């Protein structure tokens, strides 16, 4: 019985490996046919470039398993194309590349961090914040909050109607949900309020209150 199970497992593994091999061969055959069609139709000089054999998403890396070097008509090759896989192998992709697409340097450009737009006459300052102190962590950029400082001596209102410019909460790439607990908020405040706010953030706990639209 055990021998039969072992033989069956080996056969299943062989069949699985064969299916993967045939799938890869079919992809390469499709790309080869596309290449031949282009050469036959447009008949220009050719150059070797790196082309992906399957869709490559943001955050993935380019390898020999998802790309290959092949000849393409010169007229269809972008100026910033990658000619050798070694130039970009194992680098992280920052823009999606679709099956059959030529790889270019634009697919690896670093995404600039977003810039804060600070209202005129105000300054931006970041302060620590936890979920429990910021309405369960739902405070987001664009919200208006009142900032309270609380310590053993009591609770004081520090700033009224402060604009939230940014938070540590980021949206996940696959779902419209928050990926982590709140750690900080960046607020737009009057310049003369910065010192008091920073001091309070070190000596007390800050709470961020959202008022109803009617209360404003």
Could you explain how this protein is built, in words?
Helices cover 24% and strands 25% of the residues. It is built from 2 helices and 7 strands. It has helices at residues 2-42, 194-203; strands spanning 46-52, 67-73, 123-128, 144-151, 154-167, 184-189, 205-209. Strand 4 and strand 5 (154-167) form a beta hairpin. The chain is elongated, with a radius of gyration of 28 Å.
How many strands, what sense, and barrel or not for the largest sheet?
A: 5 strands, antiparallel
List segments where confidence is low: pLDDT < 50 over at least 5 consecutive residues. 171-179
Number of domains: 2
**Which percent range describes the beta-strand content?**
15-25%
Question: What is the percent of helical residues?
Answer: 10-25%
Mean pLDDT: 76
Quaternary organization: single chain
- Measured between the Cα atoms of the first and last residue, the distance is 77 Å
Strand/helix succession: HEEEEEEHE
Give keywords:
216 residues; Type Iii Antifreeze Protein Isoform Hplc 12; five-stranded antiparallel beta sheet; 24% helix; alpha+beta; 2 helices; single chain; 2 domains; two-stranded antiparallel sheet; elongated
Give a topology summary:
Elements: H1 2-42, E1 46-52, E2 67-73, E3 123-128, E4 144-151, E5 154-167, E6 184-189, H2 194-203, E7 205-209
Antiparallel strand pairs: 1-2, 3-6, 4-5, 4-7, 5-6
Briefly characterize the structure.
The protein is of the alpha+beta class and 216 residues long.
């Amino acid at each position: 019985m055990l021998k039969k199970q072992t033989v069956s497992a080996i056969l299943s593994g062989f069949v699985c490996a064969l299916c993967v091999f045939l799938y890869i061969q079919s992809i390469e055959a499709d790309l080869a046919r596309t290449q031949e069609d282009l050469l036959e139709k447009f008949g220009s000089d050719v150059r070797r470039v790196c082309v992906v054999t399957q869709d490559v998403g943001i955050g993935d890396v380019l390898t020999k398993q998802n790309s290959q070097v092949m000849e393409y008509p010169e007229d269809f090759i972008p100026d910033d194309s990658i000619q050798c896989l070694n130039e970009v192998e194992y680098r992280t992709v920052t823009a999606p590349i679709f099956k059959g697409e030529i790889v270019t340097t634009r697919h690896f450009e670093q995404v600039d961090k977003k810039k804060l737009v600070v209202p005129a006459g105000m300054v931006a300052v970041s302060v620590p914040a936890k979920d429990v102190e910021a309405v369960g962590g739902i405070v987001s950029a664009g919200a208006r909050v009142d900032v309270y400082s609380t310590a053993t001596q009591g609770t004081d209102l520090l700033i009224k109607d402060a604009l939230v410019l940014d938070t540590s909460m980021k949206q996940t790439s696959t779902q419209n949900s928050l990926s982590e607990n709140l750690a900080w908020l960046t607020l737009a405040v009057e310049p003369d309020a910065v010192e008091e706010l920073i001091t309070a953030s070190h000596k007390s706990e800050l709470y961020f209150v959202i008022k109803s639209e009617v209360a404003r």
